[in-house]
Input
Amino acid sequence: MTIKRALAVLIPAAVLLPMTMTATSAAADILLSQGKITATSSQESSSYAGKYAVDGSTSTRWASAEGSDPQWIRVDLGQSATVHRVKLNWEVAYAKKYRIELSADGTTWTTVDQNDTGDGGIDDRTGLNGRGRYVRVVGTARGTSYGYSLWELQVYGVTDTTGDTQPPSTPTGLKADTVAASSVALSWTASTDNVAVDGYDILRGGTVIGSSATPSYTDTTVAPETAYSYTVRARDGAGNLSGVSSALAVTTPAGGGGGGFVLAAAGDIAEQCTASSSSCIHPKTAALVQGMNPAAVITMGDNQYDDAHYSDYTSYYDKTWGKFKSITHPSVGNHDTYDSPAFAGYDKYWGTLGKPDGKRYYSWNMGNWHFISLDSNDFVTESLNAAADPPQVAWLKNDLANNTKGCIAAYYHHPRYSSGDHGDNEGAAALWDVLVNAKVDLVLNGHDHHYERFIPQGIDGKANAAGPVQILGGMGGAKLYPLHAAHSTTAKLLSTFGVLKLSMTDTTFTSQLIGLDNKVLDSSPTYTCH
Output
């Protein structure tokens, strides 16, 4: 039920006894959610992250992206619990319709309560009786034209004390492997547990900033010339937490030439679906981009499915990733050739953003970085436009020769090497070989619908410290493809959705894969430009 305000009501004394018994039994309930790890479908900005809905303060809040349904916030209670009550303190942007769900694993959800007549204020949903580790509030209809916003999300109930109650050992050996102006790479000695260690929480200044399944983590939310204090703690599957490690003090250096910047990148993005479908992924990856607040966005082709008509671009891609159109530097994919005439939808939607010099390959600069967007359709046999375009190769060589920046990244659709369903592209060697010989630092691709990060490779695909780091980021929203045996140079191979977060300085770069739950699924080392 929903309790809006206290009412003085005269009721028969005979009714008081069961009410008193209920209050007595509920007295054992405790607040389970405060300070716990959250995930959200989106956030308006980093100032309105999910953690602010469980910080115990009514002056901070979570706010979703505006103007789309559904949106959700999830809290990890840390261990299985029986939930009896969920109290929601709405800001002006409230939910007219929402449901409360529980899950044991964060994947399979059961609805324990639903409200189709929400009117804002405080919703105190009592009388619940569900069990799970994860609690999710899903807004399905907004009460205003804004998004959804909660001052506080409070979950009450009883934790499971009948199972494993032994916490993992406290992590030791916390150290900083690399410290850059915009990132700090941490590692530590793994904890032990009587059952198994489930993961680690990373704390900065005493506040949880992320989690990791392995004893390492890269913080890319730091600023130059700033002092930070880090600790970590371990947790097991029952939610038992270890003590926090000894603190590690870190001071980031100054960023050269104006400091670093963050980019968001992905390929193979918008299928023909909208946020009204819970299985539609591109609205969720767009929310990840928004949370990164990037300086620019890179797309590695196949931005719109299936035949990339202009009407499809405006109906689907533009509703989500289109929010970042003004800062996007796109590249073209094979699906753009399926329109009639080929590229008609791509050219009309992107205009001069996609063809700044009248061609679908171009370059641009940011900081001490030179970026090159290429059209790999000209080189692969599967493309309807394959022509092994010598003019593009000549242009590329000339562009590289005239570059004055210290770091170089290139991106295009078809990868030279891939452990996915399409596999290696021999036709893309025409581009790859030129880039390797020019000592390009980073190459981004799509086409195969998975995530794969390689160690630096040479022309032959073998490990070579002088070669570029290749990252295949075809996980922007289109249906995932099967994986095959990993290459010997594959550092990480995942079948998952997400967005690539690139943290660039004037002399280095690091990458992270951010999953749909905002967790870091992969972190690269910090690479120094050639």
